[in-house]
Every structure is written in structure tokens, then in C-alpha cells.
Amino acid sequence: MKKVAFVFPGQGAQYVGMGEELVEKYEIASKVFDEASDSIGYDMKKLCFSSTEDELKKTENTQPSILTTSFAIYKVLEEKGFKPHAVAGLSLGEYSALVASGAIDFKESVKIVQKRGKFMQEEVPEGIGGMAAILGLSNEKVIEACDNSREHGVVEPANFNCPKQLVIAGEIEAVKKAGELCKEYGAKKVVMLPVSAPFHTSLLKGAGEKLAKELDGININKLSIPLVANYDAKFLESHNDIKEKLIKQVSNPVKWEESINNMINNGINVFVQVGPGNALTKFIKKVSKEVSVLNVENISSLEKTISILENINSFEKTINISEEIA
Fold first, then answer.
1. Which long-range contacts (CB under 8 A, 24 or more apart) does 236-241 make?
2. Which ranges constitute the DSSP H helices of the chain?
3. What positions does the domain Malonyl-CoA:ACP transacylase (MAT) occupy (predicted)?
4. Which residues are catalytic?
5. Residue 220: its pLDDT value, please?
6. What CATH homologous superfamily does 129-196 map to?
7. What are phi and psi of 26, to 5 degrees?
8. How crowded is residue 32: how many other Cβ atoms within 10 Å of its Cβ?
9. Residue 317 vs residue 84, higher pLDDT
10. Can you name the residues that pair with 158 across neighbouring β-strands?
11. DSSP per residue, 190-203
12. What is the pLDDT of residues 44-85, one digit of tens each?
């Protein structure tokens, strides 16, 4: 039997026009965008469909816009009768996964991620922090490069995306030095990323503390779909753990590769990226060549994915994770 996970993208997946085709065709998607606009007080359709790249990449805009687009696409799939066996999201995408699982109300989550983006950007002044993707080098050697660059400032692993692709982050000079060492150690490529905040490092601990106060004010419901958390790459055992793991996620590395392997080990063999772009499908292909990967971000990819999902017997029952991890 095929078992399907829906996975949701994080910051960096955004582009002007994301979600527009689906909003034009599906009322349920349009309604999600309207709800987001009501929640945060500005026109989400205008932001996503006709703003500039610069406006969209402001962190406090990026995070609610990707969440809204991803959840709108999820609602279209749900309306068509598809419910996954498990969900996960990379960084910001974890909020999309939580909303899809029923743990957090969508309108509340839009407000939270807008503030999350603001807290993360403000915690380290622009120009102080940075991130770099290291390609073609083992995790151990990248970590060693970080350790050997600390005299230049804070630099730490931030995203364990897939085999031989790790993102580092921290103070810009330390990040650059670690990148140079990675090249010396044999990295195929080092790419400085177009972000100014050192996401998922200890430098953002203060942002996590501010986020904690915001999360105190929202209700967390039991999950209707099993979810793998970024912080420890484990299935959540209780909805009571959600707030703590979201807070820790801000200043700790995202264990995406380990999360995917955990789902595979629990029987997932089809992954659908729900949201803009296809970065997660590329990561998952590198984690395992044995699983199928799909994505939905527009009409053509929706139709292709629906056609494939309709031909597999995958949505009859969800994985009973609670028994497997007991």
C-alpha cells in the first residue's frame, strides 16, 4: 500500500504570482487568502500576486504569504478528497503542516508567523548575520569547519537538508570563513544565501523567547494527522509538545533529512510538496531514490498530482503513529 506525506516549504520558496492560478479557479483557495487578509490587515492577494520581489522577500511578509499559499493549496487537495498519512514542513513550513493537521487555527497562525518573521529579522541587525549553503561535503566536515571558524564569530549548522547539503548560519564573517574552510575540505560549492538573518542558530534565542509569549495566547488542538517536528525529527507524541518545539525550532537546526528518513521508516513512500517551488522534492530525491515525489503549486502540477494520487490506494487510513512510537 502506498502511504503519502504532504510536506510544506519554508522561506525562500516565495515568488510573485504564487497561488494566483488556484485562487482564480477554486473558491476554497480564494477564501483562504481572504481569511489571511482579514487576519493581518492587508491584502494578501495583492502581496502575493502583484507586489515586487523585494516587498515579498521582507521576512514579515514572506512568512505569512508562503503559509497562506501553502494552506490554500492544501485546502484544494482536501476538497478533492485527499488527506495525507503524515505531514511535515521545513522551518516556516512547519506552521503550514500544523494548520493542515488541525493543531493551530489558520487565522491565528498567519498572525503568529508574521510576528515570528519580524522577531527573527529584528533579533540580529541587518548586515550582521548571514547564511550559506554547503554542497558536496559531509555533515561532519561542515561541522568541523564551523568549529574551526568560531574565533571569527558565531557560525553553526542551520539546516540539514539532504545528504551533502547543509546550510550554515551565524555572524557574516564567521560564515564566510567557514565557507572558505569547507572549500578547502572539498566542498563542491559554497553559496551565500540572500538573507540577512542567521535563521536557526543560537543568535536567535531571543526571538524564540518573544515568540513564546505570542504562542502562550493561542489554543493548540490535538493533531488529526501525524506530524514530524523540525527540532528533533520525531513524530509529535502530544499536542502539548507543540509550543515548546516551535520555540526551540527558531534557534536550533532544522533536521529535515532525518525527518524524511523517519517518515520513510514509518512506511511513507510518496511525498507531495504542497506550496510554492519544488525545493523539498529535490531534497527528498537525494535522501531516497526509492520514494516517489510530487509537488503542487499551480494548475498543471495540481492536475498531474491528482491524476497520480487517484491511481494509488493511499488515502484509506492514516498511519497509527501512536502505536508505533509507544
1. 237/322, 237/325, 239/103
2. 20-25, 27-40, 44-50, 53-56, 59-79, 93-100, 106-123, 139-147, 172-185, 205-215, 242-251, 256-265, 279-287, 299-309, 321-324
3. 7-306
4. 91, 200
5. 94
6. Malonyl-CoA ACP transacylase, ACP-binding (3.30.70.250)
7. -120, 120
8. 29
9. 84
10. none
11. EEE-S-SS-TTSGG
12. 999 999 999 989 988 889 999 999 999 999 999 999 999 999
pLDDT at 194: 78
Q: Which residues pair with 300 in a beta bridge?
A: none
8 A C-beta contact, residue 169 and residue 293: no
Whether the Cβ atoms of residue 292 and residue 25 lie closer than 8 Å to each other: no
Amino acid at 82: F
| C-beta separation of 48 from 5 below 8 A | no
Domain 4-123+203-324 is found in CATH 3.40.366.10: yes
Cα 40 to chain centroid, rounded: 21
Long-range pairs of 45-54 with CB within 8 A, sequence gap ≥ 24: 45/20, 48/16, 48/17, 48/18, 48/19, 48/20, 49/16, 49/17, 49/19, 49/20, 49/23, 50/16, 51/16, 52/16, 53/15, 53/16
What is d(CA 259, CA 255) in angstroms, rounded to the nearest whole number? 6
Spans of all domains in the chain: 4-123+203-324, 129-196
Confidence (pTM) = 0.93
Measure the CA–CA gap between 211 and 244, rounded to whole angstroms: 10
